[in-house]
Design goal:
Layout lengths: L9 H10 L21 E6 L14 H8 L6 E2 L4 E2 L5 E6 L7 H17 L3 E6 L4 H13 L3 E5 L18 H7 L9 E5 L6 H8 L3 E4 H7 L1 H12 L4 E6 L21 H12 L4 E7 L10 H26 L1
Parallel strand pairs: 1-4, 1-5, 5-10, 6-7, 6-9, 7-8, 9-10
Antiparallel strand pairs: 2-3
Helix pairs in contact: 2-10, 3-4, 4-5, 8-9, 9-10
Length: about 325
């Protein structure tokens, strides 16, 4: 587990948190603030990409997603759902330290812990996928080991002894450190070109894996059913790597893999597979605007985040009805 003491860093961190609210366009025009007031959710930007192993640039992902977020209304016409029953805020960006991986992980963990301690649902905009490791630490301290619904083209269970923390290792580290309930976790869409030990490790530790080819063959409805079967009633988080989508739908990412999925398929998987589950939070990672002049990757990311908000809205409405 990463262990970093902040004795000399605390004052600097506080100042950076204040600065983190400057020059940021808030998500959907939400109040941009650090104080909590019984909101349902908080948007949290994590502009960190020190842990990438291929193309860098996803530190600008939070900005790219926020840029799209004021162009749409709160209605979702095909789902007939409105998120006006939710109260949200934009927490700004976590004060990460580019080039300092463990220090940045600690900043992410501390920020997520603040949001969770206030009983808000975090919706995190990344950033590379290593950030989810720090999130899982915060979730596990709040709820005990949590399950994970993981949409990606890679398992992210690599093991590089010389580099413990990169965006290919978060879930191996989370398993080793006891943050992850693997018996109720599932990885969906895996198709990356890599040694099979990564997938073997995930399966041997209890995770269910649906490969990209299997998902294409079985279809959305069956995959959603498998997600619900695996997770059950367990507290879980949803982590969505934008390279789950095919590069034709999301070219702006660091490690694109052909043979992926459309934005509609991703949204339908969330609708059918995640609605009604005991979800503690959500993140979306690996968006890189520099490799996508048309900005369709950030547009897809925004719609996927918004789809999760409709799921959260529906859950709140049903709880209030009960």
């Amino acid at each position: 587990m990463f262990q970093v003491e902040f004795q000399y860093f605390e004052l600097e961190k506080i100042e950076k948190q204040k600065e983190g609210l400057l020059n940021i366009k808030s998500f959907m025009g939400l109040p941009l603030k650090k104080e909590f007031d019984k909101e349902d959710y908080a948007i949290v930007g994590v502009p960190f990409d020190t842990a990438t192993t291929n193309r860098a640039g996803c530190r600008f992902g939070p900005r790219a997603i926020r840029e799209w977020s004021d162009r749409f209304r709160p209605n979702v016409q095909d789902a007939r759902w409105i998120i006006k029953n939710l109260k949200g805020m934009d927490y700004g960006n976590v004060p990460v330290m580019p080039g300092y991986t463990e220090e940045s992980l600690m900043c992410i963990y501390q920020s997520l812990k603040e949001v969770l301690d206030a009983d808000l649902t975090p919706i995190v905009l990344g950033g590379d996928h290593l950030i989810t490791y720090a999130e899982l630490r915060a979730y596990s301290e709040k709820y005990g080991r949590v399950a994970m619904i993981h949409f990606d083209s890679h398992n992210d269970t690599s093991d590089r002894k010389e580099i413990q923390y990169n965006h290919g290792t978060p879930f191996r580290r989370a398993i080793e450190d006891g943050f992850l309930d693997t018996s109720h976790s599932i990885q969906v869409g895996i198709r990356g070109y890599a040694e099979t030990y990564r997938m073997d490790y995930a399966k041997e530790n209890g995770m269910r894996v649906i490969t990209g080819r299997e998902l294409h063959d079985m279809g959305i409805a069956r995959a959603a059913e498998m997600i619900r079967e695996q997770v059950g009633n367990q507290k879980c988080m949803v982590t969505f790597d934008i390279d789950f989508l095919d590069p034709s739908a999301a070219p702006g990412t660091g490690t694109p893999v052909s043979g992926g999925f459309t934005t509609y398929e991703a949204m339908e998987l969330l609708r059918q597979g995640v609605t009604g589950l005991n979800v503690a939070g959500f993140d979306l990672v690996e968006v890189m605007e520099d490799y996508d002049p048309g900005r369709i990757t950030a547009l897809a990311a925004y719609h996927i985040v918004y789809q999760y908000l409709t799921i959260l809205s529906k859950k709140k409405a049903e709880m209030e009805k009960d």
